[in-house]
Specification:
homodimer; two-stranded parallel ribbon; aa-tRNA-synth_I_CS (chains A, B); 2 domains; Tyrosyl-Transfer RNA Synthetase; about 55% helix; three-stranded parallel β-sheet; 13 helices; tryptophan-tRNA ligase activity (chains A, B); Rossmann fold
Chain lengths: ~350, ~350
């Protein structure tokens, strides 16, 4: 992939390789990427360096999940011929641009970033905030701009990151006296964040409320059986609630037949439709969705050499693209470009 | 230069290319480096990235001084065949190691670094502290360790930087489960910081009290004439004070004949030795020292292609050495090393 014409949209997304990807990733982002790769040049970054920003003392956790995530991508249908999948730590330009951008962003500006503020609180960092974590919005701006991405699929909690990136683009371009870096726009996902199977707002491995893309038939069965519905819906004949009912949230997210889901919802609210029946419908839908994903994933994860080979190919392409941006920035700053 | 045996000392020093080097640099560091290059493998880093940490908005100031500093090095006798002179921004491993080290250093730890604390105060940063400036001790640790340097010539105000580097070495090595990074020791300069010609504690271009290595005969003459002595020494026959008398501080720093300086000091303190005579002695000594430096410098700075060529050669060597360290760190962390 050569430098894309500036009129063409370029997509960048990515994941921190902190564990296997799950249904939440699929609903919120992965299936959108499968669609996007047919329309635009797309880069997907396995963000191992960013994964280390809050796992600095357990690098093995990040290292062992790089190929797990790679296998997840291929299994859901990300096509390495259409999408450039690459590894953050293999791309020196990303670190170099981060170093350059850090000089035009104040510490108080990064600290004011609402996403970072929230995450610092959630993760319970106070005196123990790693410098790398504080800096990661700048590193993300380096990622986005290095690829010349102008469309960035994110959740709405990530909008402040896009804003911060555009601030950096604006400052850098005015320093460089040329529009070297591209402004970017968030592509918000159609599906809002998928809740955990227990009804908690967020799917998270540490809460044990996820369903990975590798989940076995039995795991899917157990997850759906245990799924949170309407605790007030005691008899089948009782009217049931849809709001906060995870089974219906998942049916909305994954069932291919919207009319059928609408019908079920009406029936459930009216009374006369049992939880068991709804769960059966959902389980069938999830089994159908995940069976081929699981099968492909098993095949891929068994061939780590192939996975690493593909990741290397993508990273080489990405290296070329990101070096172009780095060289343009360095030249703009007047720094020698030696090799 | 290949990987030096671990028993061999390796030296790293450097300068931020924020202006031409001056007599203060010469007395405090450059002449020591000329001696050291005969004894040990030595790297000198033109720290343009670090220069940008507090010049983020005026990159042209840093860019235009890179070759000025290179010319200064050659002019004082740094020999590129013995010393590897290299450019920080040309060495991606330094940025990449900085990114990795940032995850094991907390924000509060960097802020506690007394050198950084002082400098933040001196430079009047408060709400406007650039992130890159806060992070620069970690970047310096990346520099030192990337070269495998175990001897670092610094002023005593820089000792906290060495301490912080060794903390990072300790943490990284324990994460890597192998002594991949080398601990380092400060080499304190024999000469303490040279005062400005006006008697101010620090030579600094912004105070206009420096004498650059490129100073003309006339500039040297004027600087010595204007030099601060003992304001109480009104008549030649009066006893004069040596303490705080810049002429004697400079004679101590630069006169080759220590006995003669000792004799002059005794005579001055006793009374009967005039300021003019002392200044003549100093001027002669500085003219002798700087004339060949100035001549060589003029020749070198006229040939920027040659300067850039030498800097490129050094940077290529340095690239190999620093990549070795980066690869060892990545392997130790379990991260893929792709190319």
């Amino acid at each position: 992939m050569t430098h894309s014409p500036s009129s063409q949209h370029v997509i960048l997304t990515g994941d921190r390789p902190t564990g296997q990807l799950h249904l939440g990733h699929y609903a919120g982002s992965l299936r959108q990427r499968v669609e996007l790769q047919a329309l635009h040049p797309q880069y997907i970054l396995i963000a191992d360096l960013q994964g280390l920003t809050d796992n600095g003392s357990q690098p093995e956790k990040i290292a062992r999940n790089v190929l797990e995530v790679m296998a997840d991508y291929l299994a859901v249908g990300i096509d390495p011929l259409r999408t450039t999948i690459c590894l953050q730590s293999a791309l020196p330009a990303l670190a170099e641009l981060t170093m350059l951008y850090m000089n035009i962003v104040t510490v108080s500006r990064v600290k004011r970033n609402p996403t970072v503020k929230n995450e610092i609180q959630q993760k319970g960092f106070s005196r123990s905030l790693p410098t790398g974590f504080l800096v990661y919005p700048i590193s993300q701006a380096a990622d986005i701009t290095a690829f010349g991405a102008d469309r960035v699929p994110v959740g709405d909690d990530q909008l402040p990151m896009i804003e911060q990136t555009n601030e950096i683009v604006h400052k850098m371009n005015s320093l460089l006296d040329a529009p070297v870096l591209r402004h970017c726009t968030a592509l918000l996902s159609a599906t809002s964040r998928l809740p955990g199977i227990d009804g908690a707002a967020k799917m998270s491995k540490s809460l044990g409320n996820t369903l990975t893309l590798a989940a076995s038939e039995e795991e899917i069965h157990r997850a759906v059986s245990a799924m949170y519905t309407d605790p007030g819906h005691l008899r089948i004949s009782d009217p049931g609630k849809i709001e906060g009912n995870v089974v219906f949230t998942y049916l909305d997210a994954f069932h291919p037949d919207r009319d059928k889901v609408a019908e079920m919802k009406a029936h459930y609210q009216q009374g006369g439709l049992g939880d068991r029946q709804c769960k059966n419908e959902l389980e069938e839908c999830l089994q159908t969705l995940l069976a081929p994903v699981r099968e492909r994933r098993q095949k891929y994860i068994a061939d780590k050499e192939m996975l690493m080979g593909l990741l290397k190919q993508g990273s080489e392409k990405a290296h070329q693209r990101t070096q172009e941006t780095l060289v343009a920035v360095k030249r703009g700053l007047g720094l020698p470009v030696m090799f």
